[in-house]
Amino acid sequence: MDPRSLPIYRYEDEIVRAVRDHRVVVIEGPTGSGKTTQLPKILLHAGLSSGIIGVTQPRRIAAVSVAWRLAEEMGVEL
To answer: What is the SS3 assignment for the chain?
Structure first.
């Protein structure tokens, strides 16, 4: 599946604008919409990161899984 087909990409410009304009932004969406895996990539590609992406999850295994998934999608080593 192409990650760009996930629902979060419909709001990419709006999300980037909100993050640029506000100190705190809350993103809400259904499970599987791309919030966890695609939001960090959207912000990185918009120049809103120094190249380091931090993702938090309530469980360690989830955080590690997300990190591996992002690294794979972006073609970088973890």
So the answer is: CCHHHCHHHHHHHHHHHHHHHCCCCCCCCCCCCCHHHHHHHHHHHCCCCCCCCCCCCCCHHHHHHHHHHHHHHHCCCC
Closest CA relative to residue 40, chosen from 60, 1, 76:
76
Residue-wise burial string across 40-76, b where 16 or more C-beta atoms lie within 10 A, e elsewhere: bbbbbeeeeeeeebeeeeeeeeeeeebbeebeeeeee
Domain ranges of the chain: 3-74
- The number of CA neighbours under 13 Å toward the Cβ of 33 is 13
Whole-prediction pTM value?
0.82
Model confidence pLDDT, tens digit, residues 34-54: 999 999 999 999 998 887 778
